[in-house]
UniProtKB/TrEMBL annotation:
PANTHER family: INNER MEMBRANE PROTEIN YPHA-RELATED, OXIDOREDUCTASE CATD-RELATED
Localisation per UniProt entry: Cell membrane
GO cellular component: plasma membrane
Protein's name in the database: DoxX family protein
Family: Belongs to the DoxX family.
Species annotation: Salinispirillum sp. LH 10-3-1
Source taxon at top rank: Bacteria
Segments crossing the lipid bilayer: 42-63, 70-88, 103-122
Membrane topology: Multi-pass membrane protein
Keywords: Cell membrane, Membrane, Transmembrane, Transmembrane helix
Length: 126
């Protein structure tokens, strides 16, 4: 069973990161719309650019296992912050499900922060 751990670690990293890469790349194609949504929620639209960088670069770092603990900490914080800013609405069940998704993803990143990327990673080779 332990022989599967490195592959489970890699698969877990990919599954945690793919939503961020997809989201960041999607924002590139719809910057104006996303900026408008951010501003409607009280967040300065100019923050779209660092948001895209955090999502895409952070996600790629998680997948390849480079500076994993730092990337995991940043993405955990990003997940919690964006959850509170965009989804925390106790009167709306669907928004609360999205909020809890963000909280759950942050939990996965905190486990990654605590345990590192695992054997199949750039971090393990360094």
């Amino acid at each position: 069973m332990k022989a599967l751990y490195p592959f489970a670690e890699l698969a877990g990293r990919v599954l945690l990161a793919v939503i961020f890469i997809q989201s960041g790349l999607g924002k590139i194609g719809g910057i104006e719309g996303t900026q408008g949504y951010m501003e409607m929620m009280g967040v300065p639209g100019i923050l779209i650019y660092p948001t895209i960088l955090v999502e895409v670069i952070g996600g790629l770092f998680i997948i390849v296992g480079f500076q994993t603990r730092i990337a995991a900490l940043l993405l955990a914080g990003f997940s919690l912050l964006s959850g509170f800013l965009f989804h925390f609405d106790p009167s709306n069940q669907m928004e609360m499900i999205s909020f809890m998704k963000n909280v759950t993803i942050a939990g996965g990143f905190l486990v990654l922060l605590a345990h590192g990327a695992g054997k199949i990673s750039i971090d393990a080779r360094r």
